[in-house]
Design brief:
Elements (H helix, E strand, L loop, with lengths): L1 H16 L5 E2 L1 H8 L7 H4 L16 E2 H11 L6
Antiparallel strand pairs: 1-2
Length: 79
């Protein structure tokens, strides 16, 4: 049992140090943006919105790329 726990700790440390981007699904993306899950399509079908094609899986949305995209595409009203 101790060996198993040590191995799991090792795997967790690897993924925390990994250079793989944090990838969100549609539900996580909606929560991150602060909108209802039903409205997330307004974003993901916008030209240039970042996503990862994952063979055999649903598309994912890399958190850092989404953050950058939002920063570049958010407009503020001047008063």
């Amino acid at each position: 049992m101790k060996v198993l726990i040590e191995k799991l700790d090792e795997i967790i440390k690897f993924f925390k140090k990994s250079s793989f981007p944090e990838v969100m699904d549609k539900k996580e993306l909606a929560r991150y943006i602060g909108i209802h899950e039903n409205n997330v399509h307004n974003y993901i079908y916008t030209e240039g919105f970042p996503y990862l094609k994952q063979p055999g899986m649903k598309d994912g949305y890399p958190k850092q790329a989404v953050k950058k995209w939002l920063e570049e595409h958010t407009e503020y009203y001047r008063r």
